[in-house]
Design brief:
5-stranded antiparallel beta sheet, 5 helices
């Protein structure tokens, strides 16, 4: 199955600001489970867009916009082909096997506390409340934890902010997918299981009963389970990762993978809007596709007449 993803991010400012520097992580990854067959990026006002791969192998596009302006639009379009056969038949591996493979590998970044996923007093109270301990198999334990977070926390947009610590969601027992992912990562790492944050998109089918909304980016986690590899868990929707999850970037937590990150010079009221559409398409023939990477810029019809940070929260 192939999906078409269109991701429009609009920043509006009043009065005009200037000297914006921005980086985006919107290009889906290519691996055994999915293949990014086409990606394009449009920026308004005109900008010289450059790209590199970060430490975790995520594609990063970055640009700067000189002068003064009231609006920035970043439009990403991707076609991603999902390979159903590549999703592993998850089995019940043992704790001993997991520990052996972790000791032989290089997973320390995904075991240590990180900026948004670290132990706090409230987190450890939840750890005790859930009676988390190594039992049964790693997979069974993580499926139980996925269910518990879904049951005990309400999905509630606008109750946390992009830079909220996990204690805000822990105290209120509500949050968005970004909060669910950070809490699960912090708990799983306490069990000595490597766990990482995944930024991406979720296709919402007609029969899906997802709590997270269509029209926004999504976040979930991946835990390393030895021979089975990295297995995705979506605590927001109580799902095991599958063909509807399209991953874009991975990292220790949100701080490593925001869809947009930037700064601008000036003092202004600002408005950020995001519109995401994910729709199935017939997988195009590779010979008929445009180049795998297209970076386009276009000028606005009219030239737009301290440093402030600009990011978007994952819903």
């Amino acid at each position: 199955m192939a999906f078409s993803i269109k991701h429009l991010t609009t920043f509006r400012y009043h009065p005009a600001v200037g000297e914006s520097v921005m980086e985006v992580r919107m290009q889906p990854r290519s691996d055994l489970r999915q293949r990014c067959m086409m990606f394009s990026l449009d920026v308004v006002p005109a900008a010289n867009v450059m790209t590199y791969n970060d430490f975790f192998g995520n594609a990063v596009h970055h640009f700067d916009i000189p002068g003064r302006y009231n609006l920035i639009e970043v439009t990403a379009h991707a076609i991603v082909d999902i390979n159903p056969a590549a999703w592993p038949a998850v089995h019940y591996g043992t704790w001993e096997d997991l520990d052996t493979r972790v000791a032989e590998g290089d997973y320390w970044e995904m075991l240590l506390p990180s900026h948004y996923a670290k132990p706090t007093e409230l987190l450890m109270e939840l750890f005790a409340e859930l009676k988390l301990a190594r039992r049964a198999s790693p997979l069974e334990l993580l499926l139980d934890l996925n269910q518990s977070l879904y049951d005990k926390f309400d999905y509630a947009p606008n109750t946390t902010k992009v830079d909220s610590p996990i204690d805000d969601a822990l105290r209120a027992r509500r949050g968005v997918c970004q909060d669910f992912a950070h809490i699960m990562i912090a708990l799983v790492r306490q069990l000595k299981i490597p766990c990482r944050y995944v930024s991406g998109y979720l296709f919402h089918g007609d029969k899906a009963k997802d709590r997270s909304p269509a029209g926004a980016t999504h976040a979930w986690v991946e835990a390393y389970l030895g021979e089975a590899g990295w297995i995705a868990f979506d605590p927001t929707n109580n799902l095991l990762g599958g063909e509807r999850h399209i991953h874009v970037a991975v990292g220790r937590d949100y701080a490593d993978v925001p869809p947009t990150r930037g700064v601008y010079k000036g003092e202004a009221e600002s408005e950020l809007s995001v519109r995401v559409t994910v729709a199935p398409v017939d997988a195009p023939d590779p010979g008929e596709l445009p180049p795998a990477m297209v970076l386009r810029t276009r000028r606005p019809e009219a030239k737009p007449s301290g440093l402030m940070e600009q990011q978007q929260q994952q819903q």
